[in-house]
Amino acid sequence: MRVRRLSSLLGGAMLAPSFVIFPLDFSAAAPAPTPISGTESTADMVDSASVEVADAAHAPEDEIRNATSHNSRENLGAKTLPDRDVKVQKATTPQDVNPTLAAVGITWDKGTSDGAQSQYRVYEDGRWGAWNNAEFHPSVGPDPSKVPGVTREGSDLILITGATKVQARVLGGPGQVPANPKVTVIDPGRSDADATPGTTPAGSAQAAAQRPQVLTRAQWGADESWRKGTPESNKVQGIVIHHTADSNNYTSDQVPAMMRGMYRYATQTLGWDDIAYNFIIDRWGRIWQGRAWLHPDQPVWPAATLSNNDRTMGISLLGNYESEPFSSAAKGSLERLIAWEAQLFRVNPLGSTQMFNNKTNRYETMPAINGHRDTYFTACPGANVYPALPSMRTNVSRLMAAGGNSASGSTGASAPYRLLDRDIDGMNDSDILGRDSSGRLTLASPTGKGQMTQMEAYGGGGWDAFDVVTIGGDWNGDGRPDVIARKVTTGELFHYPSNSSGKLGSAVRIGVNWNGMQAIVAPGDWNGDGIPDVIGTTRGTGDMYFYAGNGKGGFAADGRKIGHGWSGIKSIAAIGDWNGDGKLDVAAVTFSGLGVVYIGDGKGAFTTQFTQSGSWNSYTTLTGVANAYGDKRNNLLAVDGNGTVHLGSRAGDSSTTWRKVNTSYAGYAVYGG
Q1: What torsion do the CA atoms of 187, 188, 189, 195 make, to the nearest 10 degrees?
Q2: I need a labelling partner for 392 at 20 to 30 A (CA). Which of 7, 86, 137, 433 fits?
Q3: Is the Cβ–Cβ distance between 81 and 71 less than 8 Å?
């Protein structure tokens, strides 16, 4: 069955497709997350002799012993308070905090804190609690060469719930006072969307090293104007595990606000370029995006492990695991995330790598998966996580083996191909769409063993009104791929957001006058800005236009002409990263049946093309799928006039090898693109 297209335009003139701005209508969907700035206040510490600090100026012997013991233990004996004459040197007046959730940091001029220990206490239920020692990890933060001019440093962020006031102080010997000590109180703000960003533990539906579910920065409400620069890539040789060393006493709907608090403290208080870690995992096993990326597979340079940020990925567990238990949900998600990263960057989880050991001041051979304490004077990632690393390495290796990846050597894993983001139903696979004879939307997926599933009903009727229906990646920034569709009679372009249940929400019109386009394809992030885009070719004139997505459910600008001479192209299909260079590509078939693969440059243009042997003329539908053979590669899928399904794989010479599969889609119109 051929997909119906309009063949003529009013008056013979083509109107350029344009975008329209409409409010997103999610109807019964969960509240959409938006950037939340929150508020911040800072107070200077004053001399302990000031009457304003009241009893905070006095530290009994037992409190000093506790601070001394903690300081030595946290720094593995590398730094400690003096043996005598330790007292309160500076303190703040009591500061008001939001009782729902507050983030507190104690800061000072960089490099002036040796021989001192910062502390804090909270006021709740009508009385002051005991003094707590604040953690300080100088090995966490951006490399000076990447973010020059950072002049402040401070404690790990302290997350407080249920209190109305906080007070901070610094203990030290004579003359051992950090310069310009301050306390910063952050109210990260609240959003209705905080309660519904994601409820399924990351990767729980999978057994192999596929990309687990990652909740994006948009979902925790990051204000992207705060970060500096463009995310830079490193060369991942190892993965370092951390913990944030703050509270484990948080609820699931407080996590987005905790992320915003960490982000604001890093960028606005300390002057960093971004949050420190690549990923953060909460105690329910949900994986959150930390540092910004250009695309999910980018090895983003972290700010988490001093002297080793150029060669590692930093993953942190949200909470303090020195004394709190390591939940099975968090452990399972950490293993799945490591398996995906290890597969992507060819890291052998049972192998070793060279890392700089700040404790011995030299490069040493260390496990490829290690803890922060392996390279610095710290107890991180905590006494309940670090001993679990050996068994986790084994489990990661098993996950990778289950996904068809060798763990016997650092080059044994599959190459880091960028797979198509087309898991519309949330079942951890790559989907295609079609419609049955009654106009109902249908869906099918690769089995991972060289076959395709049968078509099954996915939506209601009325889809015969659309001639273009394609899975367009995460079009609105909520972490789930969505559908882009063109209505035949009007040329309107619609966005159908998917929801957490794997279904489609209400349609939102995002464009008009698109009936002048011969081919429309949503290839993913075509220009390298981390946001999915759309490409179209015009009828008759054969011009190619690029439409940049805005990551919020629409377009960032009108179409930009990026090519001409495409009038002979009948259809175009998104095929992900076809040649393993980390950039997205497309395939096309001409009206004469010639197949061509076009290699993208990752910046919105093409570098070269490969004409395919044989005729593709019998194929009525051409589209892309991922992992059809379980090998973490992208494939072409074609359907001929009889409904027979063919899978195409890239050969070493960039030609396509086709194989007929057992599945038939006779009676269905399968959407291409």
Answers
A1: -130
A2: 137
A3: yes
**Nearest Cα residue to 528 out of 226, 230, 290:** 230
Residues with Cβ within 8 Å of residue 29, at least 6 apart in sequence: 497, 499, 505, 506
Residue 430 has pLDDT above 60, yes or no: yes
Residues whose CB falls within 8 Å of the CB of residue 130, separated by 6 or more in sequence, listed in order: 121
Q: pTM of the entire structure?
A: 0.58
Neighbours of 85 (CB within 10 A): 10
Query: What's the pLDDT score for residue 573?
Result: 94
* Residue 219: other Cβ atoms inside 10 A: 24
CB 14 within 8 A of CB 538: yes
**Which residues, listed in sequence order, are joined to residue 316 by a DSSP beta bridge?**
242, 280
Nearest to 23 by CA among 552, 490, 514: 552
- Give φ, ψ of 337 to 5 degrees: -65, -45
Q: Which contacts (CB < 8 Å, 24+ apart) does range 60-63 have?
A: 63/131
Q: Which two tokens stand for residue 619?
A: 């194929």
* Structure-token pair, residue 646: 């063919």
Q: Quote the CA–CA distance of 293 and 530 in Å, as a whole number.
A: 7
- The share of the chain scoring above pLDDT 70, in percent, equals 87
Structure tokens given for 67: 């601070």
Average pLDDT rounded to a whole number, residues 311-337: 92
Eight-class DSSP state of 267:
I
Q: Which helix (H) or strand (E) holds 333?
A: helix 328-345
pLDDT per residue over 527-570, tens digit each?
A: 988 889 999 999 988 889 999 999 899 998 888 998 888 888 89
Separation between Cα atoms, residue 195 and residue 201, nearest integer Å: 15
User: What are 187-215's pLDDT values in tens digits?
Assistant: 988 887 787 775 433 323 233 356 788 88
d(CA 172, CA 118): 9
Average pLDDT over every residue of 447-457 = 91
* Helix, strand, coil fractions of the chain, as percent rounded to 5: 15, 30, 55
Q: How far apart are alpha carbons 136 and 115 in whole angstroms?
A: 12
Across all residues in the chain, what is the average pLDDT?
Answer: 83
| Residues 43-71 as b or e (16 or more Cβ within 10 Å = b) | bebbebeeeebeebbebeeebbebbbebb
Cα–Cα dist 182/23, whole Å:
43
Tokens read off for 94: 């009591």
Coil, helix or strand at residue 380? coil
Q: Say how far apart CA 288 and CA 297 lie, in whole Å.
A: 14
